[in-house]
Design a protein that fits this description.
single chain; about 675 residues; alpha+beta; Helix Hairpins; D-amino Acid Aminotransferase, Chain A, domain 1; OB fold (Dihydrolipoamide Acetyltransferase, E2P); 6 domains; globular; binds 2-(butylsulfanyl)adenosine
Length: about 675
């Protein structure tokens, strides 16, 4: 079998891989301009390692598998590290982590090893040399032996102490001490920096790591000082100061000396606990305020670390557990333009499907035309796609090296892609809008929003049904929904009798939603659900709100002049008034318990969490009832929670409530507590 394709043999493949790895190392370490993702780089190194193991004759001392990083870029004076700055071996699965533990235990002849588990910060490694407690030198990693002396810039990083504070009970410190750690930029500071660069017309940094590296390599320290860089200390190389026998003690010492040590760090007895740490850390990756790309698992005992020692490239007592990559490369097939419920035209990338950290991404937001131009994204480009938390995936930028010349620059259409009407840009806005108020795309998106969970919460009214309702001319506005009967709905494609009845009931049940939800649903510009709730609670019903002036609205908490103007304008427009009247005539509730009466019910002052599937009402209806009864509804269970309402298949929240001794009620009990007349959401009694 030809493993390498195109007749390549092992020697040629090894040579090719070495050249490529060296090139990518230079791009990454020296130019802060990686062309490939970390995962792709790791794959190249792994392939080379395997080939070298299979072909011992082809091994060389100069192979990139035997050294780390590229040579220093030369802009800053080269500085030889007192102790080499090594890298870490990577692993990518719990099995590989278990194999690391097995190696460690075998070498030590022990059954269980104590580890320290740390987040792997996605920044750049820094070596700080202190003499008699004063910071003398700050050096980047470079090739691991020689780095760049960036002391003047390091002195501007707020988390890096210039003088080590006296540490109670620390004992005498060595006259010379080296501290290693990571310089990084938080996600928020990275975003602020890019916003500021955008305003100055400068290209954005691709990610926080690049921006930290770029900021630290500024020739003018004043520029570095203006960038918000942070630092975590995580390693004391060389002989330990007296009284320090473990890595965890070394971290405590660093903290005592005035360094910032990562608060997520935990000790683990055995690899099982270390695996739990990795899983937990990956799960909360998005809520951490800086980028991490994995966990680092280190043997805690320094005596055991010494016993295990180092390979040429990395310590045998530590390993990096890398999370699945969140950036991936793929082809941008074309750019399509979508029309939103307010008529805004948004370009969207249609991608060759690609797996980004476990999620297949096919579409990514491109925000607006200006951004496409700024990033120079073209149809046909190979692009880098990233996913951050729950946010929809976005295109980071094109991979310029892979351009063939056939890529096409993009311009926004001059007319609405849905209805052909003219598009226009409102004064002071970046967005283009379709000028046709009854554009079918606007109606479709508007209906989807109307039916959504935070709005009228109509279960079963999704895109497929809405598309048919519009194309068959059955619905021209929101109010038309209330004229649909079960048999009409059942006649739609893929519906049938049962679903038709269910959807008709769900539409009917939505009539009792309160005014806050109605205001959220009908698409008043600048009014989201939180603001809508406050406005509704203040005015109590639609007629009072219809009479309100901008001045009256300004008295509502969080309402400013823009929202006040939007609401008044909306409710004065004759077509909107007609819509409200039509909804009223259909029996839609237009009232809200007034603010003064709110919070005074049987659950007054209680913090309530819902979990599991409720049988007799939707979750949002239950939340609404709880709020009307005076409760504050939250998402997570803590010792401050007063009540957990558990439906069927309740999971971890219920377990936690039991552990914490929080009161748990079943759905029926909850209904009794609030005195609800047991009205089923679908309109029937139970
Ligand atoms: S320990 C000899 N701990 O990961 C061990 N490294 O791929 C020295 N890194 O060069 C490294 N977070 O830049 C260690 N908690 C952590 C880390 C960490 C990030 C970086 C560091 C290192 C690279 C290895």
């Amino acid at each position: 079998m030809d493993l390498f394709g195109k007749g390549e043999d092992a020697a040629a493949r090894i040579a090719h891989l070495r050249r490529e790895i060296e090139r990518h190392n230079r791009l990454y370490y020296e130019l802060d301009a990686p062309e490939i993702t970390d995962a792709e780089f790791d794959a190249l190194v792994n392939e080379l390692k395997v080939l070298e193991e299979e072909n011992p004759k082809l091994r060389t001392e100069t192979s990139p598998t035997r050294k780390v990083g590229g040579a220093p870029a030369g802009r800053f004076p080269a500085y030889r590290h007192k102790a080499p700055m090594l890298s870490l071996d990577n692993c990518f699965s719990p099995e590989e982590l278990a194999a690391f533990d097995a190696r460690v235990r075998k070498a030590l002849g022990s059954d269980e090893v104590g580890y320290v588990c740390e987040p792997k910060i996605d920044g750049l490694a820094m070596s700080l040399e202190y003499k008699d407690g004063s910071l003398m030198t700050g050096v980047t990693r470079g090739d691991g032996v020689t780095g760049e002396n960036v002391t003047a810039n390091v002195l501007t990083v707020k988390d890096i102490p210039r003088k080590l504070s006296g540490c109670v009970g620390c004992g005498p410190l060595p006259a010379e001490m080296t501290v290693r750690g990571e310089v990084y930029m938080s996600k928020a500071d990275f975003q602020d920096l890019n916003l500021a660069r955008d305003e100055e017309g400068l290209p954005p940094f691709a990610n926080p790591r690049n921006s930290a590296a770029g900021s630290l390599r500024q020739l003018d320290p004043a520029v570095t000082a203006g960038r918000k860089l942070s630092f975590f200390a995580y390693y004391l190389p060389g002989p330990a100061p007296s009284g320090i026998d473990s890595h965890s003690e070394a971290l405590a010492l660093l903290e005592g000396l005035g360094f910032k040590v990562n608060p997520e760090i935990k000790k683990a007895c055995g690899i099982g606990e270390a695996m739990d740490f990795c899983a937990g850390l990956e799960a909360k990756r998005d809520s951490i305020e800086y980028e991490i790309d994995g966990a680092v698992i280190k043997v805690d005992s320094l005596a055991l670390q010494r016993e295990l020692g180092f390979t040429q490239r990395s310590p045998r007592w530590a390993i990096a557990y890398k999370f699945a990559p969140r950036q991936a490369k793929t082809k941008l097939l074309r750019i399509e333009v979508q029309v939103g419920r307010t008529g805004v035209l948004t370009p969207r990338a249609v991608l060759e499907p690609v797996n980004v950290s476990g999620v297949v991404v096919q579409h990514a937001s491109l925000h607006n035309e200006d951004l496409i131009r700024q990033k120079d994204i073209r149809e046909g480009d190979t692009v880098l796609v990233q996913r951050a938390g729950d946010v929809i995936p976005e295109v980071v930028g094109p991979v310029l090296e892979e351009r063939t010349g056939s890529e096409k620059p993009f311009t926004m259409p001059a007319s609405c892609p849905e209805c052909g009407s003219a598009v226009a840009r409102e004064e002071g806005e970046v967005a283009l809008r379709c000028t046709n108020a009854s554009c079918p795309a606007r109606l479709r998106e508007g209906l989807l929003h109307f039916a959504s969970r935070d709005a009228m919460d109509i279960d079963g009214l999704g895109p497929a049904v809405i598309d048919q309702l519009i194309s068959k001319g059955l619905v021209h506005d929101f109010a038309d929904l209330y004229g649909l009967d079960a048999s009409t709905l059942a006649s739609l494609d893929r519906m049938g009798g049962k679903s038709g009845t269910k959807l008709a009931a769900a539409i009917g049940a939505s009539k009792v939603r309160n005014l806050g939800r109605l205001l959220t649903s009908i698409g008043i510009r600048n009014v989201g659900s939180a603001t809508a709730k406050l406005i509704a609670a203040r005015f109590g019903d639609i007629d009072a709100l219809g009479q309100a002036s901008e001045q009256d609205l300004l008295e509502v908490e969080t309402v400013g002049p823009v929202v006040a103007e939007s609401v008044v304008k909306f409710l004065r427009l004759p077509q909107n008034r007609a819509l409200v009247e039509k909804l009223k005539a259909a029996g839609v509730n237009m009232t809200e318990p007034r603010a003064e009466g709110k919070g005074q019910g049987p659950l007054s002052g209680m913090s309530v969490v819902f979990t599991g599937t409720l049988e007799h009402m939707t979750r949002s209806r239950a939340e609404e009832l709880a709020e009307e009864a005076g409760a504050k509804v939250t998402d997570s269970v803590s010792s401050k929670t007063d009540l957990v309402v558990a439906g069927s298949e309740a999971g971890s929240k219920l377990d936690k409530a039991r552990r914490l001794g929080v009161r748990v009620a079943e759905e029926r009990e909850f209904m009794e507590m609030i005195g609800e007349k047991a009205v089923k959401d679908e309109g029937g009694l139970f």
